[in-house]
Design a protein that fits this description.
Layout: H1 5-9, H2 12-30, E1 32-43, E2 51-69, H3 77-89, E3 96-109, E4 113-129
Antiparallel strand pairs: 1-3, 2-4, 3-4
């Protein structure tokens, strides 16, 4: 007796195997991964040689999120400047951040959707350009 393809598709063993393959593939595609790295900059802006850098004793934080499809987003200099400017807006007297810590985290979902978040945290400071007392 010849079995047709339609009769094979209706068998219980075939349905179980198909379900098992589906569950395994679903597990692989629903898995996500995350990667991150952290780096520190002593100051976010150039301190002029004759400037006094004075701390404002305020911790400032800001973040920026980027999206990438099939490729993870990349941090560029413009992204760093944007997040620094977002932080500096929080303190009107601030000109720079001291000991700025940058945290870049990428989360990949389903292997296709990538979300990157750049966070900065640092101490606000201002520059007063003038004469420094070099006798001390």
């Amino acid at each position: 007796m010849k079995k047709t393809i339609l009769s094979l598709l209706k068998t219980r063993i075939f349905k179980r195997r198909l379900f098992l393959v589906f569950v395994v593939l679903l597990g692989f595609t629903l898995s996500s991964c995350m990667t991150s790295y952290y780096y520190v900059k002593p100051s976010t802006h150039f301190a002029y040689p004759n400037a006094n850098v004075i701390s404002n004793n305020k911790q400032l934080k800001a973040k920026k999120t980027k999206f990438g499809f099939m490729m993870p987003p990349v941090v560029k200099g413009k992204d760093e400047r944007d997040v620094i400017n977002k932080a500096l807006v929080q303190d009107p007297d601030a000109d720079m951040l001291l000991n700025a810590g940058f945290n870049w985290r990428v989360i990949m979902i389903l292997g296709y959707f990538n979300f990157g978040t750049l966070k900065v945290e640092g101490e606000s400071a201002k520059q007063v350009i003038g004469k420094q007392d070099l006798n001390h």
